[in-house]
């Protein structure tokens, strides 16, 4: 009988051992995610505590820390604006409006500004863009290393709205899902700062409540505790099964002799 139970016993022990390893690895992964979120939170706090930076064509890249307050003086070039679609605000679908602020017209040097959010019309009409003030403007906001991306999942045969090869491309700004700074620079001929300015103040109706990465590392710590608890339960189950098998093995010869 002991031999008949051996394959099932071995299989049970192997499955429990695998469960311990997998559950413990999930716990370690959650700890890594917690560390990543701590690092993001530290970067946000470090950026926001720096003094405001005045952007200029020659601003050193080392000064362009993410989340740092910044201001820029220049002139809007609204014919090079781009709309970023599928950007929700408070559960409402809409767009982000991105427009370059030209810092040096002679050298075509600029910074791309995320000006704000505007809603999408339910009837499919083009959004009403706010008027752009003429002349030199002062824009304040926070720095971002790139335009925040939206996850793209394209079904087979689906068409993707892409940035035109050159801008301006028409009366209305092109509508894209994501915007890469290098692609935008090639399309516009502008020399861009390697950073994006997320505008935080303005006199128009645009909404400027910019998303922030999730930094709730305590949630990951809670998940890690759960996974480690499950791993502990599986380890205890492995020990119980192994102990019972060992006791049966010790009793086996004596009980057989007694017969």
Please give the structural blueprint.
Layout: H1 2-48, E1 53-55, E2 69-76, E3 82-84, E4 94-104, E5 109-119, E6 137-144, E7 175-176, H2 181-188, E8 191-199, H3 217-258
Parallel strand pairs: 1-2, 3-7, 5-8
Antiparallel strand pairs: 2-4, 2-6, 3-4, 4-5, 6-8
Helix pairs in contact: 1-3
How would you classify the helix and strand content by structural class?
alpha/beta
Read across the widest sheet, the strand sequence of neighbours is 2-4-5-8-6
Which sheet architecture does the biggest sheet show?
5 strands, mixed, barrel
Element-by-element helix/strand order: HEEEEEEEHEH
Q: What best-fitting shape do the alpha-carbon axes yield?
A: elongated
| Share in helix | 25-40%
Ends distance:
15 Å
Q: Which spans of ≥5 residues are poorly predicted at pLDDT below 50?
A: 154-158
**SS elements, strand count:** 8
**Average pLDDT for all residues:** 89
> Radius of gyration from the CA trace?
29 Å
Tally of distinct domains: 2
Number of helices: 3
User: Proportion of β residues?
Assistant: 15-25%
Structure notes:
This protein has about 260 residues and is an alpha/beta fold. About 35% of the residues lie in helices and about 20% in strands. The chain has a 5-stranded mixed β-barrel with strand order 2-4-5-8-6. The protein is elongated.
């Amino acid at each position: 009988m002991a031999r008949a139970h051996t394959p099932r016993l071995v299989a049970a022990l192997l499955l429990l051992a695998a469960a311990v390893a997998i559950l413990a690895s999930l716990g370690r992964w959650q700890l890594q995610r917690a560390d990543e979120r701590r690092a993001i939170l530290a970067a946000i706090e470090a950026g926001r505590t720096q003094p405001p930076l005045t952007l200029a064509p020659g601003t050193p890249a080392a000064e362009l820390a993410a989340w740092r307050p910044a201001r820029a003086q220049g002139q809007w070039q609204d014919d090079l604006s781009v709309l970023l679609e599928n950007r929700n605000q408070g559960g409402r679908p809409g767009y982000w409006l991105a427009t370059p602020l030209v810092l040096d017209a002679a050298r075509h040097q600029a910074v791309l500004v995320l000006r704000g959010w505007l809603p999408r019309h339910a009837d499919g009409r083009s959004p009403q863009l706010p008027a752009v003030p003429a002349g030199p403007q002062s824009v304040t906001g926070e720095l971002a290393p790139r335009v925040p991306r939206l996850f793209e999942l394209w079904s087979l045969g689906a068409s993707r709205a892409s940035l035109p090869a050159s801008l301006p491309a028409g009366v209305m700004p092109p509508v894209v899902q994501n915007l890469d700074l290098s692609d935008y620079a090639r399309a516009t001929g502008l020399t861009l700062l390697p950073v994006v300015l997320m505008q935080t103040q303005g006199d128009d109706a645009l909404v400027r409540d910019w998303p922030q990465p999730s930094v709730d590392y305590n949630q990951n710590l809670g998940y890690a505790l759960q996974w480690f608890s499950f791993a502990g339960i599986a380890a205890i189950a492995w020990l119980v099964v192994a102990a019972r098998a060992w006791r049966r093995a010790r009793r086996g010869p004596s009980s057989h002799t007694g017969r």
